[in-house]
Amino acid sequence: VFIFLTLCVGAASINQETFRGRLNPQGTQTAENMMRDMIRRVNDLIKQHTKVNNMWIGPVSVEHFSVRTLDTANVNLIMNNNKLGVQLHNGRVHLTAHLAVYIPIIFGQIRVAGQFDTYGDAISASLDSSLGTGEGSCTATGMGCNLHVGSPRVNLHLPIINHLANMILQGLMPHVTRGVCTGVSQYGNGMVNSIFQSLPTNINVLNLFRLEFPIMNFRSWSRHMVAGVGMEIRPLNNAAVSFNDIRRLALPEAEDGHMACASVSDFVVNTASRTFLPKGKSFAVDVGSILSLFFKDIFGDRKIFVQGTLEKSPEFLAEPQEMIFSVAASGRILDADGNVVPGTETAPIEVVVTAPNNETPMFSNVKVQVKGPIKITLNINLAKVIDMLIGFIDGAFNKNPNAGLVLEKRAANGDIVRILNEMFFSKLFSGLKISLSTRHGAVIGCMSGNPTSHSTNLVYNALRRSFG
């Protein structure tokens, strides 16, 4: 009974994820490096733009205020025990203010002014939250906060007052840091959860279909992070679609050394297939026009249509190192008036295409099988087609007069990576490495690379615009 119940629970919960993203420690390090660069630039923006002149705060005139030193870039990401957060080490801050107080007297007022310098060294802080999932979104619980200023001090440029002010500051600082963290912990979870709840879990894509992606899983451990969503494609009006007999397998783990990987279940492709091309959907092809191009004397301008009806939706299966595509349809010939020509209806014909993706050149041995009233088996070499396409791209980007000499070698995985780099990633990443593989039930794509100055400048310019 126990084994039976275990199997039932396992079957009910098997892979609610259909898309999964993974970041490993190398990827985490790269994200931290980019974050530190951004924080340094933000620190510079704050120092440059956070200046106040001639502002009154009650009876005090702030004649000038500026941030002289701000260093908060020594940060690390917290990823462990399903936590996500950020940690600061050895931060420094130096604030300068010229303050003045005007004291009224009988004959006018007395101005008491001076320079007020505040320093904070050896600042350490951490802010993290335990994340889980519920109702399709992330949920935050138990927000943790820690703030410590190792060497707080003030300088009023008057030795006696300085000593008293620093005694007061040293006594107040623990209460201030505890108060800050208490407030952050008290309101942080509510704020983070409100952000999570406001994020959509479905969108309408170009008014063509509805993409649903509720969050099903989040976990972090030892600077690793994995997040999974139950991505599905549905009709725009969210009408019911039969997903019976579509396999939904557990997503395999990506076990290579790339910084980031994404796994997509073939369930996603097949739900899209059921959405757009359901069983029973009909289509027609004007073969008369095609035949007249070659046999005009025989067919003339006769209208001949071949009508097909899908007997099953197109199906895509990802298997270890190969991809399988199949579709089945019945057919008939229609006359110019749309009537079925007697005796032309055929039983369902199924086409199965099997394409290994672990060969060099890629797709050099594609197997096509036709089953039903017509039985055909073909082995097709599509590598030359891919070579031609890659050659066009290569020639356009490199303007290399000798590009045609290496066409035969292009349909390899490394050459596909190079083309993707030329078309999309070269300005954003350096040292780019991409791998594509298939496992039982999923397609896995992995990437490693370091952000270029161009990609960091994109983020920096957006931040700079926010400062006006």
Please describe what this structure looks like.
With 468 residues, the protein is α+β, with helices and mostly antiparallel strands. Helix content is 31%, strand content 43%. It is built from nine helices and 22 strands. The strands form four sheets. Strands 2, 3, 4, 5, 6, 7 and 8 form a seven-stranded antiparallel beta sheet that branches. The longest helix is centred in the middle third of the chain and has 40 residues, at 159-198. Mean pLDDT is 83; it is low at 1-15 and 400-410.
Low-confidence spans:
1-15, 400-410
Q: Terminal Cα separation, in Å?
A: 67 Å
Strand segment tally = 22
Major β-sheet profile: 7 strands, antiparallel
Described by its quaternary structure, the protein is: single chain
- Percentage of residues in helical conformation: 25-40%
Put simply, the count of helices is 9
Tell me, what's the shape?
elongated
Radius of gyration: 33 Å
Mean pLDDT reading: 83
Fraction in beta strands: 35-45%
Alpha-beta classification: alpha+beta
